[in-house]
Design brief:
binds ligand LLP, 2 domains, alpha/beta
Length: 427
């Protein structure tokens, strides 16, 4: 199997940016998430390379991995950020991200979140419904400011991905129906508290084919033309996120080629129009920036052999929910040489949580002994962010490696962290 970039074997030891992952287990314990700064930087650079000189902003989708160090790394690279909550806005600001590069997506923005984002002076709200137009206009009126807005259009294109992460078809709760777009742009334009600046979509995640994205782009460009004919001029187009990554043997879309294809297509469309001012391109990638920059380290606690062989490890569905929730496949590899008395068998790798759904992998051939450490690969996106405290398990530690150094970027949760805010009855 091919390891993701920046992972390598030195003898039997699995290294990330030259750091032995077994040493991270020894130093920080297990389970622990580890991220590579170089891998995050390289993925972001691929987006920037694809843009070339075309005006654009890569707004990292914070939901994929919101650790402060990950956001910090991206902020220093000049990233923008796509947020979906007031909490994510605070994280971006505390990580050194610039509010003027923040776009705010999501179907359920509350008054408090909208006011916080207006107060911070974010770049744009991606509006998802007619009611939200009114809500944001009212909030802007209360604060005496003008809110920059874009409408998230649901282009009704099938992203050909897992149904739980398909968002751009008409059955989905996301975005404004393509057929209602013009009417709602007119409505938004009529509010003096709103400045209509853009158009956006996000049709799904883990897409391995660029066709649905290109089809969505064409549908948005048609709308930009129709709106221009009505005197509604937009300054940016945001194609969302969604590029897939390799978890097993998937052939992912090459990032910079894809972005270059998009900018060329927009430039060609632009050339056919009389208006020569370039429309800026925004993208909202999450998974393709961080998924293969991360690994979840875990240790084997017990081996249980019978009609089915189980390797019980110290990570569980509360740490990594993707297998249980989406039947997702993550590669599992030993971090070093097998321990004394190791058994080579086909294992189901499971956690200690009291649920049959608590599995991390089915039917994997591994040579392992209790105490051996394993790496669950491609665990940088939608992994730690979806962790919970189920079974009163503290969430894992997080470590960032950076050119031979490693930094603890989130301490393992303690029982005191878990109980914070809880109380017994007064009597
Ligand atoms: N923009 C919006 C509005 C989104 O809802 C999302 C992801 C993104 C951007 C980033 O998409 P990406 O580039 O990461 O595909 N938990 C699931 C994935 C949920 C994706 C939700 N939205 C998983 O583990 O596969």
């Amino acid at each position: 199997m091919t390891l993701p970039a920046f992972f390598a074997r030195e003898g039997r030891e699995l290294m990330l940016e030259g750091v032995a992952l077994n040493e991270i287990v020894a130093r920080f314990g297990s389970p622990t998430y580890v991220y590579s700064r170089a891998a995050i930087t390289a993925a972001f650079a691929a987006y920037r390379d694809g843009l070339g000189n075309y005006p654009g902003l890569i707004c990292y989708a914070v939901k994929a991995n919101s650790n402060l160090a990950v956001l910090d790394c991206l902020a220093r690279l000049g990233a923008g950020f796509d947020i979906v909550s007031g909490g994510e806005l605070q994280r971006v600001l505390r990580a050194g991200g610039l509010a003027k590069r923040v776009i705010f997506s999501g179907v359920g923005k509350t008054d408090a979140e909208i006011e916080a984002a207006l107060g911070a002076n974010i770049r744009c709200f991606n509006i998802e419904s007619e009611a939200e137009i009114e809500k944001i206009a009212a909030a802007a009126r209360r604060l005496g400011v003008v809110a920059p807005v874009s409408l998230r259009i649901n282009p009704d294109v099938d992203p050909l991905t897992h149904p739980y992460i398909a968002t751009g078809m008409k059955e989905s709760k996301f975005g404004i129906a393509h057929a209602d777009a013009i009417a709602l742009y007119r409505k938004a334009k009529a509010f003096e508290e709103l400045e209509v600046v853009g158009i956006d979509c996000h049709i799904g995640s883990q897409m391995l084919d660029e066709e649905p994205l290109i089809e969505s782009l064409d549908r948005l460009l048609d709308l930009v033309d129709s709106l221009a004919a009505e005197g509604i001029a937009l300054s940016h187009i945001d194609l969302g996120g969604g590029l897939g990554v390799r978890y097993r043997d998937e052939q992912s879309v090459a990032i910079s080629e894809f972005v270059a294809t998009v900018t060329k297509r927009i430039a060609r469309w632009q050339a056919l129009r009389r208006d020569t001012s370039a429309i800026e391109l925004l993208l909202e990638p999450g998974r393709s920036i961080v998924a293969n920059a991360g690994v979840l380290l875990t240790q084997v606690e017990y081996l249980k052999c019978g009609s089915k062989n189980f390797a019980v490890v110290d990570a569980a569905m509360n740490d990594l929910l993707r297998p249980a929730l989406y039947d997702a496949w993550h590669d599992i590899v030993p971090l070093g040489a097998p321990g004394h008395g190791a058994q080579k068998r086909v294992w189901d790798v499971v956690g200690p949580v009291c649920e049959s759904g608590d599995w991390l992998a089915h039917d994997r051939e591994l040579e392992i002994a209790p105490g051996d450490a394993l790496g669950i690969l491609s665990a940088g996106a939608y992994a730690m962010v979806m962790a919970s405290n189920y079974n009163s398990r503290g969430r894992a530690a997080e470590v960032m490696v950076d050119g031979g150094n490693c930094y603890l970027v989130r301490a393992r949760e303690t029982i005191d962290d878990l109980l914070l805010g809880e109380a017994r009855l007064p009597m």
